[in-house]
Amino acid sequence: MIEYLARFADGDARTGLNLLELALGLTTSPGITQEQIKKSLAHTIIYDRAGDAHYDTISAFHKSVRGSDPDGTIFWLARMLKGGEDPLFIARRMIVMASEDIGLADNSMLSLATATFTAIQQVGMPEARINLAHCAVALALSKKSTRSYRALGKAMELCEHDPALAGAPVPVHLRNAPTKLMKELGYGKEYKYNPDYRNGKVKQEVCLKYFFGSFIVLFRLNNDLTDYSVIVPTGATRRHGVSGGYRLGN
Q1: How far does Cα 184 stand from its chain's mean position?
Q2: For residues 47 and 85, is the Cβ–Cβ distance under 8 A?
Q3: What are the CA-CA distances from residue 226 to residues 4, 112, 113, 221 (Å)?
């Protein structure tokens, strides 16, 4: 047992002393075997659900999926499961990964991740580990896209840094008109109902715009949705002292 503890400590005296203290404490349990002590020590030392290991290991798992590394994904998943991690916690993180990292590259991954969460609730451990492995490897092997995730981040950045644009009124043609008065005021009047047009396509302004003095200012995301521009017609000067195209963020 001493040799086992020494190998486990791997030259770290403090870890060795902690292991010895834990092992001595476990020996007070009636009928406990060496194998049970070893298993208990592994759960306690290798993976502390209340400590840094909880966050470090899920981070390593997430980064393995993001990096399309199925081997690393399975290894860190196994580490968490052997350490007694809550399988629903892992499943919730995979639901996030499905939209954050895979996103538009494979929309079916979000359905798989949410189905995995439900499967774990219905099946329970230890069998649910199979569902976790299925979903984790599928996420790792999927193509990746952060377009929607990053686009939302840029739009939220704009709302934070440009209160005037963030608080601008909704264009009249996009407003809801549940009452007669609202209809008389023109709410929704100029809205073009897409299904009425060929292939559902019609030129229509749906991005936020507002009047800045005598100029119209438009919010636009670039083609790959990774950045945005606040477009000001040439000649207009905003309070930030920028003429023409106005850009925030990277």
Answers
A1: 44
A2: yes
A3: 52, 26, 25, 7
**CA 148, 152, 157, 158: dihedral to nearest 10 degrees?**
100
Q: Which of 88, 89, 150, 94 lies closest to 118 in space, CA to CA?
A: 88
* pLDDT, tens digit, 9 for 90 and up, residues 10-43: 677 776 777 777 777 777 777 788 787 777 766 6
Evaluate if pTM is beyond 0.85: no
How far lies 127's CA from each of 119, 130, 163, in Å? 10, 6, 51
The interaxial angle of helices 34-46 and 13-26, nearest 10 deg, is 130
